[in-house]
Fold this sequence. Notes:
Blueprint: H1 26-37, H2 43-61, E1 67-73, H3 74-83, E2 85-93, E3 96-102
Amino acid sequence: MVNKMPGVTVKIHYRISFDKSDKVFTSYIKEFYDLKSKSFDNPSLRQLGKSFLNNLYRRFALRDRTQITDIVNNSKMKEIDLKNSVNHCYPLGDDHYIMNFNK
């Protein structure tokens, strides 16, 4: 991590990492596709399977918003505030802030 402010130490307390996979939802899709396709005699179960599949599809159709955390000065903080959705902004002193925002 690059320290953008002399005299300020940023300590990382934890980190989560994941292995890349292209089969994350394979079992989820198979389970609910089977429920939907094999429930001709039970409309409620068929609708449940269909609903779970559609909800997963809708989740990925949502607009992708990148979340950024950065240390900025006062003028940059105001610029970010005008153009983005700010989640958190904490003063660090000496005209600097740590901001978390969606771009």
